[in-house]
Amino acid sequence: MLVWWPLFGLAQAQGFTDGTLYYASQQGELYAVTEDPLPTATRFGDVGAYVAGQLAFSRDGATMYVPLPNDHTVLAVTPDGTVTPYATGLVRPLGLLVTDDGHLLVTNWDDGEVLDITGGGDVSSVAPLVTGLGWARHLLQLADGRVLVSDQQTGNLHDIAYPRGGPVGAPFATGVLGVLAIAQTPDGRIFAGGQWDVWDVTAGGAAATPFTHGQELIGLAVAPDGRLIAGTYLGTVLFDVTGGGDLSSASPWLTGLPVGDTALAFGPLPPGPTDTAVDTGA
Fold this sequence. Notes:
Blueprint: E1 2-3, H1 10-14, E2 21-25, E3 29-35, E4 39-46, E5 56-57, E6 64-68, E7 73-77, E8 83-88, E9 93-98, E10 104-108, E11 113-116, E12 121-122, E13 130-131, E14 136-141, E15 147-151, E16 156-159, E17 166-167, E18 173-174, E19 182-184, E20 190-193, E21 198-200, E22 205-206, E23 210-213, E24 217-222, E25 228-232, E26 238-240, E27 245-246, E28 260-266
Parallel strand pairs: 1-4, 8-12, 13-17, 18-22, 23-27
Antiparallel strand pairs: 2-3, 2-28, 3-4, 5-6, 6-7, 7-8, 9-10, 10-11, 14-15, 15-16, 19-20, 20-21, 21-23, 24-25, 25-26
């Protein structure tokens, strides 16, 4: 169900917390989804512009980064819904990742590049960290420290050799048509949301059999307990796809959301010496 609260509602009280799912609609409305025991969505902000791509969180949980591809900008949002520009001068930013060493990476979709925009500001003259992609979409840091990027044009996933970067090399995984979101579950499995299935690409190489089918799934987010939550193409519902298989008759995990893209992510784990990087969503 969908619950409307004032902007200074649930998110302000809890902050960007582990265990809360954050969701941005294409129109820029921001929601926090909690379970008690059923999932409930509470609106806590509105960026007032088209949102698509990936949400990311600062290591201290104080800031959520939101991409505005049509405005070539990344925003910084606080838990009370306050919105300020963080980085400008980008070229259709979509993917966002805060790495385990605290750097903020972004994909320039049109240019097929990955940039390090730590510090923000006008980044139009920042040299790209990674080049040679087609349509650079989402980013994921694996538990072993490697950083993957999805290439929507080729259907490939690449290891970007972070922090060195450079021209993109041979793909880690191939054959995920229209690949968008990528995620890793706590047991080490790597999933990619393509057009329109979710694929298990843990072993790398050519994708063979879809992990899920029966729904047009594109966005992915991993809950702290390991559940895999997926959003649908131009949809208003989310599915729990942890078990995989045929979802054509599955009931949604959450309904009644405004139309979204792939911008859903669980809040960050508290920083600490033993934490591991987790996917910031699809």
